[in-house]
Amino acid sequence: MNADLDALHPYPFEKLAALKATLTPPTELAHIPLTIGEPQHAPYPAALEALVAHQLEMARYPATNGLPALREAIANWATQRFQLRNLDSEQHIVPVNGTREAIFAFVQAALDRTRPAQVAVPNPFYQIYEGATLLAGGEPLYLDCTAENNFRPDFSAVPAAMWREVQMVFICSPGNPTGAVMPIEEFKQLIALADEHDFIIASDECYSELYLDETAPPPGLLQACAELGRNDYRRCVVFHSLSKRSNLPGLRSGFVAGDAALLTPFKRYRTYHGCAMSLPLQHASIAAWQDEHHVRANRGAYREKFSAVTDVLAPVMSFPVPQASFYLWPAVPGGDDIAFTQRLFAEQHVSVLPGSLMGRTGGNGTNPGAGRVRLALVAELAPTLEAAQRIRHLIERG
């Protein structure tokens, strides 16, 4: 077997299961999980209808590049959402089976193993960035996201000598687990660094449509390119998904967009990879990308939840003001996120994800995820609010 497999950490949820294995929660309380970022709101109905209407197309092999109609729907959505000018559906877009597989596959295709291959990732982070890097023969460079830097990577703190070995930088905005949003000027500064040091920027924007201020949608990497007149999107790729936007995580549908010079060889890789999206899923995706009404309603539901939960927890926990995504990133009383997670499960039958499981110990000897927990507010309002009340009760009991 590939020896690089031995470098992979167990997935955070595997570690969490081990932490809970010997605990016995109160059976009179229903279990409320706030762990996995799996939307529980109703899936977009028109997408499900399209699945049924096109089910006989399961008898056909899909093309790697996807249906022209799907690429057009994606191009139209992205152009309008991010004020783009020349996003070409043929050159600049690749439909994919969700951002998870696409992020992993893109790193395998993009890293050059003949020279040092560091990949900068936010810390804490979505573990696929690290796993994809390790299996491509690269080395993660962890950029701590702390309260001191507003939970965003500080690219100015990376020495010039270190940039020479960086082949790719991952951004996650809105952030998982922090919910932090990168301002467009920081995107532009990173683009300038990419030009100077010749690395790829890979922007994971799968939470971009879950924002709390309807008048302030989070900016994106391609939007920064457009404002710079960089209409070839050189060195830049973005990843988007229908999982969060349209409550369709099981559809496994998203896209990669950006620099055609990067996407052309990536498509060749995918031809061998054999991961084309089935045709019924493509038709469902077309329906979802073409409608914004259900997305606005979805944001409204999350806005209501965030308001209710933060009202309950703000008096007893400290957390960054939520901007986007569906996560809350509170510090735990006493600072021990593992002990807090275990006690919360054992006494209140609520599961959360310890922040230390999403981070790595950096050069300063600390794990920036330690002392915090990630709350995924993905269920409907009532159970989510009840979970918040149980958390507050636990804290107030001391």
Summed up:
By secondary structure, the protein is α/β, with parallel strands linked by helices. 40% of the residues lie in helices and 13% in strands. Strand 3, helix 5 and strand 4 form a beta-alpha-beta unit.
Describe the structure.
With 398 residues, the chain is an alpha/beta fold. It is 40% helix and 13% strand. The protein contains 14 helices and 12 strands. Strands 2-8-7-6-5-3-4 form a 7-stranded mixed sheet, sandwiched between helices. Strands 9-12-11 form a 3-stranded antiparallel sheet. Helix 5 (127-135) links the parallel strand 3 and strand 4. The protein is globular, with a radius of gyration of 21 Å. The N and C termini lie far apart (49 Å). The model has no long low-confidence stretch (mean pLDDT 97).
Which tags fit this structure?
3-stranded antiparallel β-sheet, 7-stranded mixed β-sheet, 398 residues, 13% strand
Shape: globular
Q: What is the number of helices?
A: 14
Main pleated sheet: 7 strands, mixed
| Terminal residue distance | 49 Å
Helix content: 25-40%
User: What share of residues are in beta strands?
Assistant: 5-15%
The low-confidence runs, each spanning 5 or more residues with pLDDT under 50, are none
* Order of SSEs: HEHHEHEHEHEHEHEHEHHHEHEEEH
Lateral arrangement of strands in the main beta sheet: 2-8-7-6-5-3-4
